[in-house]
Amino acid sequence: MHLSDIPNIKHSNSNNFFLLAGPCAIEGEDMALRIAEKVISITDKLEIPYIFKGSFKKANRSRVDSFTGIGDEKALKILRKVSETFNVPTVTDIHEVSDAEKAAEFVDVLQIPAFLVRQTDLVVAAAKTGKVVNLKKGQFMSPEAMQHAVKKVHDSGNKNAWITDRGTMFGYQDMIVDFRGIPTMRQYAPTVLDVTHSLQQPNQSSGVTGGRPDMIETIARAGVVNNVDGLFIETHFDPSNAKSDGANMLDLKYLEALLTNLIAIRKTIIKL
User: Fold this and answer.
1) Which residues of 65-92 are buried (b: 16+ CB within 10 A; e: fewer)?
2) Exposed end of the chain (fewer CB within 10 Å): N or C?
């Protein structure tokens, strides 16, 4: 598929990487609109095709008392409001078969979480909505194994699949991005690098996932150099008080400088 096939996508002919960015979770309407407005102002300035990201619920939590959401319908309606207010496409992740049709009424891209990407019924349900399906590579999977997830989408009559790499677990509490996997996965589908989740440090003894946000630009630069089609970045204006994944999110105030540097690298790579 071409990016221009996604409703409300802008700058699809700019020859830049596309960007999925926003908060980890929808915490409320005001925060979602505030983040979207800022990211859109930046991506319009830099001519980056942009899709607003926000989880309408969080199912993969370390502890039973971790934040899971403000209510499914309420959060999905906020995603729709972001889309209608700023004329921008949106993406959210789904966790159960019943989520597929429900979320598809509100967003343009359905994302399959890394822990669930081998769940055939979930992948097929997402595919049958006709929406773009963003398949996050399992931390436990090889790049080559992702061809089978893509094939499930295609075999369900939907040719609109992406792969997102979010690191591979080589130890109990850390993940590594193996950049050799990017050209491999690009053979199967457009490939996105999830910069911020790749820097998570899960399984901490506290039950709260840690992270290395200081390495965001390092990972993002390497992704652009290796020709990723898109970047995924979770961002928040107050990461330390975010209700989910604050430890690895990018502070919104740093986003423009980061993307400006990445665009410069992208232009250099194209000229080579």
Assistant:
1) eeebbbeeeebbebbebbbeebebbbbb
2) C
pLDDT tens by residue, 147-190:
999 999 999 999 999 999 999 987 777 888 999 999 999 999 99
- Buried b or exposed e, range 222-257, using 16+ CB within 10 angstroms: bbbebebbbbbbbbbeebeebbbbbbbbbebeebbe
In the chain, the number of structural domains is 1
Q: Is residue 14 part of a domain?
A: no
Domain span including residue 93: 3-9+19-271
Tens digits of per-residue pLDDT, 18-40?
999 999 999 999 999 999 999 99
Q: Can you spell out the DSSP letters for 2-15?
A: -GGGSTT---TTS-
Instruction: Determine, yes or no, domain membership for 124.
Output: yes
Q: To which H or E segment does residue 85 belong?
A: helix 72-86
For residue 173, the tally of other CB atoms under 10 A from its CB is: 13
Q: Alpha-carbon Rg of the chain, whole angstroms?
A: 17
Is residue 218 classed as helix, strand or coil in its secondary structure? helix
CATH of the domain at 265: 3.20.20.70
Q: Residue 237 falls within a domain, yes or no?
A: yes
- Distance between CA atoms of 197 and 167, rounded to whole angstroms? 8
User: Measured on CA atoms in the order 24, 95, 155, 105, is the torsion positive or negative?
Assistant: negative
In degrees rounded to 5, what are phi and psi of residue 123? -60, -45
- HSE of 186 in the Cβ direction (CA atoms, 13 Å)? 13
**How far is the C-alpha of 73 from the C-alpha of 232, rounded, in Å?**
24
Residue 41 falls inside a structural domain: yes
